[in-house]
Amino acid sequence: MPRPGFVLDVDRSTPPMLFWRGENFSLEKLPADRSRVIYPPEPLAGLDDVDGAIKNALLNPMDAEPLPTLLKPDMKLTICFDDASLSLPKMRQPDTRQRIIEAVLEMAAEAGVDDVHLIAALGLHRRMHDYELKHVLGDRIFDAFHPRGTLYQHDAEDYDNLAVIGETEEGEILEINKRVAESDLVVYANVNQVAMDGGWKSITTGVASYRCLSFHHNPKTLQNTRSLMDRHHSALHQSLWRMGEVLRDQGPQIFTVETTLNTNTFPKPFDFLAKREWEWNAKDRATYLATQKSLSAMPLKARRKIMHSIESPYEMTSVQAGFTPTVHEETLKNVYAQHLVEVEGQTDILTMGIPYICPYNPEGVMNPILVMCMGLGYLFNMYCGKPLVREGGVIIMTHPTYRDFNPVHHPSYIDFFEEVLTDTTDPAVMSERWEKKYAEDEWYRHLYRTGNAYHGVHPFYAWYWGAHGQQHAGKVIIVGGDAPTVRRLGFTPASTMNDAFEIASDVVGRSPSITHLHVPSVLVADVK
Amino acid sequence: MRALQIRRKAVKLGLARIVSPVSPTMAAKIGPLELRSIDDPANPGGKDSVGWQQVRTRLAGICGSDVALVEGHASTYFEDWVSFPFVPGHEVVGELESGQRVILEPVLGHAARGLSLPFDGASPADGDDYSHLAMESNGGALEAGIQTGFCCSTGGGWAPWFWAHDSQLHPIADDMPDERAVLVEPLAGGIHGALLARPAIAGIENPVIAVLGAGTMGLAAIAGLKRYVPEARVVVGARYPHQQAYAKALGADVVVPGSELQRAVRRQVGGMVVGGALTSGAHVTIDAVGSNSSVVDALGMTRPRGRVVLLGMPADVTLDLTGLWHRETELKGAYTYGTETLADGTVAKTFDLAVDTANHFEAERLLSATYPLADHVDAIAHAATAGRRGAVKVAFDMRTGDL
């Protein structure tokens, strides 16, 4: 029986806590008697018969007809699937999406459906490399569909192949991939790693146009998204759900398949990361030391390669299919069952280690903008109710924050860092002053459409993701980061955790309460 | 007198060239430059000696071309245009016997050689035939030499005094400090480079000019652009933080680290990056570095049918010119200064513009350090590593009379 998450009060006997520092780790001693550590629940048990569970979900969907009854020989069937931003790290093969799609294709074949397209729902993310597609879908699907041109990736800039479905009462225009819009049935194969994912978001962002995304991917919406992991208090999700209703009423029939994963994230030799520090045995401590020292001695590229080669032994904890909103409510229950930890009250200082990866750099570089996005966008938003840190409090992150970019994946991020962040770090100002230029830049557009680059506007979206956290925190400190780069982000550099606490004392006084969000793995704090 | 002198010694030049990348100090020690007693130079005017005056050096700058010479990197091209042994030093503020302070315009032009000017009012560097620079003149009293500082007859600024012709001398006002005046010659070079950009942007709305490098010459070009080509948006790639700060202070519109200049240019003009080069680019790029890679970079960030101005002395460069051919890029050298035509059609001497510019920007801020001649090894090493040591211009100071 996995143990639930819990809050540990730090006393003098509490060992130092593990912090991510990009492609490495550190152990940090937290002040006794005023610090607490939030530990995630242990991984839930996975389903014993994954393929059987998928089949059962397709045959017994929620608020929908069984999938086989929806399949007709002369229909246009489109299967959309989440891109490489999920899961993190990538899961061991066979990937959940492969299993779902194989089951759907089997039923489609039995029904005699021969007009089937597979579309990677990547929104404005970068196109996946072929090896990534193969990893997600398996060789059999890739080889059957890719050479025939019926497995491809959504293009939010291909206006000949986008269609307007309709408009919400708020004036938001739902514009999506034309093949999806004109399909008789759309099946969506989802991996729901956190509560933000899934639901109407899958199609209204995954196969949407830039114009459509700009209605909710903007500073105002993100500043009022409280939080990304709490759909009912998220302005982003409210907008997406309005669009979802337009899709439901005016768009193609959607059959959603959502899955949840447990948090069994790291294989050996990194499995010590999932253990609670005071439960480390001599072998764990030795493994930590050996890993930490070895990584420190390696060039950054080698470290990065090792980290990105990790394949997670995630297990599926649930699968549900059918009518999108009904399915998603069930999915959220299952996600929260894995992630939710009850926490009493807010804190003056929130500490968090920033890892080497976030949804926008699979196989790539965690550039400074993504450090901001991961810290203030994702980890800060790991709450329901109230943020873990009080308004005006201090967020302390640990990450090397090197000034390093992947020019293939993130070309516009480089210019964003040099041009936009030297002008402003205010999301509203940059949106007004710079977003259009980047969104319409022909080179970025070309690289997004034909290469493996994120859309030109994507660094803005990554920055907006942190807009609520940026607005909420009184100060953000990065420990161990490249000082000029950290300052460019609008944050304060510190060389050690103790220096960071000293710097934070200007804002929160000499004896602040401290809360450490223990990452890995993933948790959502239900702050009372 | 005791002066710094360069003699033609191939072994020393070769050794300095080998050692300089590792140790600029050692290169300066073992190179061809020596502090030694030399005979006082005779009046280079010959029998008539009309218009030649002795100039007592007050400050004499160390130019990138001087460092290249001392470190053995200079092109052999100039071997036929200079006369050994010579006293270097062509960025000079000095004093005449009358006490009048003067700036040296170092080119040994037609007037200094007793020849008729190529046109009325021509400056020393004007004209379209350089034959006079490579031949002895004034009845043999003036040997070949493109400039004072590269001619065995005149002496040069790295000595207590030297000979200069009236056509080379620009009196300066009493309120102009020596430290500012010594920057006039490099400023004139930068302004000339800046004005060579003008024909390529005529009639263009919102022209963009990229400046690659922000050492003394790059900063001089930026100053020239902001004074005399104000309609251009100036984008600068500067390697070191202090260079970036100076570039901003001189009014550059966009300043980025040198390695990011191409991207910064693209941000201004749009277009794409194909094969490492911009598909469009700056209307003009001023290469103020003059290295192999800087020329390649300049060609790759200049738009088709644009102009690349080579302000930094390029020496021996190997590059693929296919791109230049394909993009019909104009490659324009920018040597010294002369007579300029400004935007309103008026004509001015570059040196007059440079004096004005030096006063406007208070150019003394660019003079980072001065040394006595006796400390020439340290001075040359400092100048050779100016960028990474946070310096811009290094000069010899002879005002106290101590060598």
Features:
heterodimer; A: 528 residues; 2-enoyl-CoA Hydratase, Chain A, domain 1; nine-stranded mixed beta sheet; B: 403 residues; Quinone Oxidoreductase, Chain A, domain 1; Rossmann fold; 2 domains; seven-stranded mixed beta sheet; six-stranded parallel beta sheet
Description:
The complex is a heterodimer of chains A (528) and B (403). With 528 residues, chain A is α/β, with parallel strands linked by helices. Chain A contains 21 helices and 20 strands. In chain A, helix 1 (50-59) crosses helix 3 (96-110), helix 3 packs parallel to helix 4 and helix 13 (368-379) crosses helix 18. The longest helix of chain A has 16 residues, at 130-145. In chain B, helix 1 packs antiparallel against helix 2 (24-30), helix 2 crosses helix 13 (376-384) and helix 5 packs across helix 7 (216-228). The longest helix of chain B has 13 residues, at 216-228. The mean pLDDT of chain B is 93. Chain B has helices at 10-19, 24-30, 64-70, 178-181, 184-195, 198-201, 216-228, 241-249, 261-269, 292-300, 322-327, 350-361, 376-384; strands spanning 2-6, 33-37, 52-61, 91-95, 101-104, 161-165, 169-171, 208-212, 233-238, 254-257, 273-274, 277-278, 282-287, 302-310, 330-333, 339-341, 347-349, 367-371, 393-397. Chain B is of the alpha/beta class. Chains A and B meet through helix 14 and helix 17 of A and helix 9 of B.
